[in-house]
Amino acid sequence: MNDSSSNNILGFDSASTTCCDVVSQPMILPYPLNVLIICNNNSIEQGLTAYFATISNIQVEYCTLLPSSLSNFSLVLLVLDDNIDTAKHTIEKFSKQEKHFLLLGDNIKSELIRLAIHHNVKDIISIADIEKELYLSLLTAANDLINSSKIAPVFTIINGKSGSGASFITSCLGEISANLTTEEIAILDADLNYGTLTDTFNFEPNYFITDALEDLDQLDNTAIRSMMLKRNNLSFLASKPYTLLNANPHLLERLPQLIWKVKLNHDLVLIDLSRGLETHSNSLISLSDKVIVVVQQNIISLREAKVLIQQLTTNVGIPAEKLHIIVNRHSHKGNNISIKDIKNVLDVESIFIVSNNYELANAGINSGSPILKVANHKIIQDEISHIIREIFPLDIPDIKPSLFTKIFRRK
Question: Tell me, what's the pLDDT at 1?
Answer without folding.
Answer: 37
